[in-house]
Structures are given as structure tokens and as C-alpha cells.
Amino acid sequence: MRQAAHRIDAVTPVERDRAVDALRAFAILGVVLGHWLVTALVADGGTLRTASPLQHMPWLAPISWVFQTLAVFFLVGGHVATRGHASARSRGTAYRHWLAARLSRLFRPVAAVLALWTVAAVALLLAGAEFETVRALVKLALSPMWFLVVFAALTAATPLLARLNPLWPLAVVLHVDLLRFGLGGPSWLGWVNVAAGWLVPYTLGAAWTRGELDRRRAAWTLLVGGAAATAALVAWAGYPASMVGVPGATVSNLNPPTLAAVTFGLAQCGLALLLRGRLRHAMRRPSAWAVVAFVNLSAMTIFLWHQTALMATTATGLLAGHLPGLHTRPDDLTWVAARLAWLPVFVLALAVCWTAFRHHEQGGHRRAARPGPRGSRSRSRVVRVQRAPGGERSGGARRV
379 has which bridge partners? Predict the structure, then answer.
């Protein structure tokens, strides 16, 4: 493993900004661990229903502050997309070819998830499983899809968003929340924030590409300002302290995004930008870089199958009865301790899913061909080059 790590390190271009990949890996793993820690499938007779420890122990809300990392993913996504589009234009690559290449890598693994859960849902219903159980399982399995739809839409709009000031979508979120919470407007207005809310970190990523966030002062402004605004909204404006949805809660900060979720995301983005230097230094270690490279190459597989891994473990565990931390109510610290003990089992189940379905993502990277500027075809890039500060190249790639 040490030799493999050194080989990966050796073939990685020196001008690659490894901090970008580290932030993306952190964001993906944060979402996965967050779901595993706050999502419970409680066995109630013959029915499985979803629950959350945050519902019974709201003082655990700070857990959601650590693992709700979607803003960082959109920040990195906006940065990578705007850089990639600019690089494609400089090479003469048409927009439609650039977009098709990005979306194929994003959605190629989705087909396997949809196919498996369509078959599984039909089989469970035919076997006599209760509809509520099947609905809960399918909802959990397919819940990551909303993220891909939003991310794909923003990616497609990248040429229009490349120079959009993040204050504009932030103003939209502010006015939407003012209308629905302050003036009693209809609740459906909140769904405007699904686009506007995630536009904020995405356009921050574009500002990063433009060099507007290079100074540490900008990062500190985002961190301090975002944290202060979030604290004020939670303390005095009635927003929930949890940054994820809680079953039974009147208001969810995430579904759809609220102003508190967006300001919290600003703080996260500021912290991510401040950590770039330390991450670049840490990624000089071949072992650390090999892990980050692996997570990036498997990002969609990990993201799409982690809920299936949780449910497969839960269903298999039912053969042994109602197990603590797996089928019991998440209403005390005993459940939390038991759930932490189950995490290695979830990782093992996810590894099985990765082994079975990784070719839908990585195989596509190896085999996919992309039309060049003159109709020629070239191999798709497995790992893209991000220019580190001081680098001379704005694009390029090398297989890792």
C-alpha cells in the first residue's frame, strides 16, 4: 500500500492544487458520516420507519454543524466547473461537449442505483412487505438524487454564473424567508431557495476562480460574518439549531434551505478557504494524498450507495432481532454509543457496494471519450488538474 501511495503521488502533476480534492473528499465523507449518525430505521412491529436522534435529543444539534458539508461541495463544484469551462473554451471545446462530459460522469452511476431499487421495491411489495416500510427504504435510498439534480442544473448554467456576485442569490434567500416567515407568505415560496440557496456557495466558487477570495481577509469575513449571522438567526429569529432536517420539526433548515443554512454555509466556505494552505501541506504525504485521490475517484459511488449500505446492514441485522443502535429508538446516549460501534459495519457494507458498482463510475472515466475541438476523440480525464497558486498551467490532466 505504501508503494501504491508513492506511485500515485509520483504521477500527480506538481501544479495540481490538492487542497481542492481534499475539500471535496471532506465534503463527501461529511455527508456520509452525518447520514449514518443521524438516520435511524426503527423496527416497529413489522414496519421500519425513519427516526433521528436529533428528534429526541435536540442538544445534539452541534453534530449537524460538523457533518452538514454540502456548502463546501458546492463551493468546490463552482470553482472546478468555472475553471473547467474556461479551460475548455481556451482549447476550443464546444459547450455542449464540455457539459455532456461533466454530466455523464455525474449521472452514469445513477442508473445502477435506480435499477437496483426499482427491482428491490417491487420484490419487497410482492413478498408482502408493508408499503410504509418500502416507501421509507426507497425514500432514503433515492434521497441523494435531489442533490445531483440541483448540482447538474448549476453546472449547466456555469457560463451564466461565472461572474454572478454571490450577494444576488443571498438577497433572494433573504427575501424569500422574510416573505414566508415574517409576512406569512405561502410555504411553497421556500422552494425558490433550493436554487438560490445553493447558488451562494457555487458562485463563491466562481469568485474563487476569479481570484477574489485569495486574500485571507475574505475568508475570515465569510467565516466570522456567516457564523455571527447564523447564531443571531437561531437565537433571535426562531430558526432551528440543527442544520439538517429533523422528523416532526415544523421548520427544516435544509429542506428547503433557509437563510440560516445559507449563512452557516458561508461560514463553512470561509473556514474551507482558510484551511487551503494547511491542506496543501498535508497532501504532500503520499498516504494522505492516496486516500483523497481514491475518495475523489469514487465520490459518486460512495455518495449514492452509502444509504443502501446502512439499510442493507439494518435489514440483515433483523435476522438477529432488534439490535441496539440499529433498530431501537434513538432517544438516549446508549443508542449513540451503539451507533458509533456500527460505523465500521456500515463501512464494510459500503465497501461491498463499491466493489460491485464502482465500474459504473470509474469504468466510465477510463473508457469515455470526449470530442476534441476538431472532432477528434480523446480519453476522458480521471483526475483533473487544478492550478495551485503560482502554477503556470490552467488545465490539463494526468491519469492517477
Answer: 369
Q: Which residues make Cβ contacts (< 8 Å) with residue 269, sequence separation at least 6?
A: 71, 72, 75, 201, 204, 222, 226
Q: Between 209 and 43, whose confidence is greater? A: 209
**Which DSSP string corresponds to 233-254?**
HHHHS---S-SS--TT-S--SB
Q: Report the distance separating Cα 130 and Cα 137, nearest Å.
A: 11
Pairing of strands 377-379, 369-371: antiparallel
Q: Which DSSP symbol is given to 222?
A: H
How do residues 349-380 score in pLDDT, each as one tens digit?
Answer: 999 999 998 887 766 444 443 444 444 443 43
Instruction: Check: CB of residue 234 under 8 Å from CB of residue 61.
Output: no
User: 48 pairs with which residues across the strands?
Assistant: 43
Burial state string for 333-358 with b = 16 or more CB within 10 A and e = fewer than 16: eebbeebeebeebbeebbeebbeebb
Residue for cell digits 411489495? 125
Total H helices, total E strands in the chain: 19, 4
Q: How far apart are CA 209 and CA 212, in angstroms?
A: 8
Could you give the CA distance from residue 243 to residue 357 in angstroms, rounded to a whole number?
A: 31
Res 44: pLDDT: 76
3-state helix, strand, coil in the chain (%, to 5): 70, 5, 25
Opening angle at CA 280, ends 277 and 284, nearest 5 = 145
The pLDDT value given to residue 399: 37
Q: Please count the other Cβ atoms lying within 10 Å of the Cβ belonging to residue 297.
A: 18
The region, left, alpha or beta by phi > 0 then psi within -120 to 50, assigned to residue 183 is: alpha
